[in-house]
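My hope is that you will study the record closing this message with an eye to the fold:
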Amino acid sequence: MHRGMARWSSLKDPALEAALRHNCRWIVNNQIKRLLLRFPSRTAPVRLLQSCFKTLNLLGRAANWLRKYPSCYDLFDDGGGEEPCFGFTKRMAALGDAEEAAVTASEPAMADRLARVLMLAHGRHLQVSKLAVLRGPLGLPDDYLLRLLSNRTDLFRLANPYPLHNGKFTGRHP
């Protein structure tokens, strides 16, 4: 009989494992949604998604992933018949529009929360990197710098604390 540290293993919880797999898929689909929203037409070539596939920690073909979610994505030809493209289904586009409307409607409340945090900060300023840490707890969207700060110049100002050295940005204090 071997004396020493006993090894044991617990059984995996099937519900937890399924939830983790589902969450991983949701994260990838959310990243694909963000990719499509960068395009005014809300369509993109499948080859573009394929080039980002490894970044999304996925293997295989992008078209196969898109076909797994027919309620979210439509696959079609670009019109010339040469390159397959993808876009949102009507239902997914409506959900995206509703999400955008909800975020836009909550902008005044987000700006108020951000202004209150800045009033508590020393010198009434924060580094953007510190603000990024607070983004989640404050309920700020991913694009809060563009959405909130640039539209409310009466409340907020972005400032570069680093001086220019010989006309170049050095990123260092003197």
Notes: Helices lie at 14-37, 46-52, 62-68, 90-105, 107-120, 128-138, 144-149. Strands lie at 43-45, 73-77, 84-88, 164-165, 168-169.
